[in-house]
Amino acid sequence: MTDRSPLVQQPTSFRTLRTVSALVLREMSTTYGKSALGYVWAVLEPAAGLLLLSVVFSLAFKAPPVGNSFPLFYASGLLPFLAYVDISQKVSVALRFSKPLLFYPGVTFIDALVARFLLNGLTQVLVFGIVVTSIITLFRVDAILDIPAICLGLLMALALGLGVGTLNCFLLSMYPVWERTWAILNRPLFVISCVFFVFDNVPRPYADVLWYNPLVHVVGQVRKGIYPTYEGTYISTTYLFAVSLLCLTAGLLLLRRYHSDIVNS
Questions:
Q1: Mind listing the pLDDT tens digit for each residue in 190-211?
Q2: Which of 81, 85, 220, 257 is the most buried (most CB within 10 A)?
Q3: What confidence score (pLDDT) does residue 25 get?
């Protein structure tokens, strides 16, 4: 009689890690290509936007609202804004992007969400570090950075992008018209998220309404870390993370209930 030992099954956490890693590698080759040029473009795109903003506004104003460097001021607003936009957009189409793989029992919808969030989140943090460091070095800006405050601001951008993206992942999958509707609703967001100005200069009652835009708190927190004299008393991390958690929880619950219908549709 042959003695057969039972098959050794891999722990669920290890299988999940391998699945997410494979999805991240697939995302890297698809989004950025197999060469470093894709990542170079990820840095050059926001850098070109900052250069354009700096040139245009330097012709109209003598100095930015905070500090004395136009590129650094607009980087403190544009980069966290773009981080939120990129992550929320990439996460919102995670199921669509990985749909063929979701038919395999070892791949779950959470794996697809986590993989897209990790890669694009790390990419945006890297882009932020490269662009801000380059601006300080090239323009010889005398900056005293509060690294923990900046990291908190970036974490806020990532959390908001994940929450909104997860909820939109369900809405876009179940209601295709929402994709166009969301795009229309997002168009004024670039103007009202304090990228070009500071919240402190907005008069009431407009400031009271603008405060409910979560991105105002994200941008304000990043600027608080870049400019030591910027107090940002209006910033509420509690509000930002509450909105992010609410969107994330709602999105996960809905996807858990309807992800099979979405994949099979």
A1: 899 999 899 999 998 999 999 9
A2: 220
A3: 74
Q: Please determine, for residue 35, whether its predicted confidence score (pLDDT) is greater than 80.
A: no
pLDDT tens per residue, range 221-255: 999 999 999 999 999 999 999 999 999 999 999 99
Environment class of residue 169 by beta-carbon count within 10 Å: exposed (0-12), middle (13-18) or buried (19+)?
buried
- Spatial distance between the Cα atoms of 197 and 183, rounded to a whole number of angstroms: 23
Amino acid letter, 18: R
- Interaxial angle between packed helices 147-174 and 237-264, expressed in degrees from 0 to 180 and rounded to the nearest 10: 30
Q: Which class for 173: exposed (0-12), middle (13-18), buried (19 or more C-beta within 10 A)?
A: buried
DSSP 30-86: HHT-SSTHHHHHHHHHHHHHHHHHHHHHHHH-SS-SSSS-HHHHHHHHHHHHHHHHH
For residue 93, the SS3 value is: coil
How many Å apart are CA 93 and CA 109, to the nearest integer? 11
Could you give the angle at which helices 237-264 and 214-226 cross, rounded to 10 degrees? Answer: 130
Distance CA 147, CA 149 (A): 5
Distance CA 53, CA 35 (A): 29
**Rounded Cα gap, residues 12 and 20, in angstroms:** 12
Q: How many CB atoms lie within 10 A of CB 68?
A: 12
Amino acid letter for position 171: L
> Closest Cα partner for 106 from 9, 187, 185, 230?
9
Give the residue-averaged pLDDT of 14-19.
71
Q: What is the C-alpha separation between 47 and 43, in angstroms, rounded?
A: 6
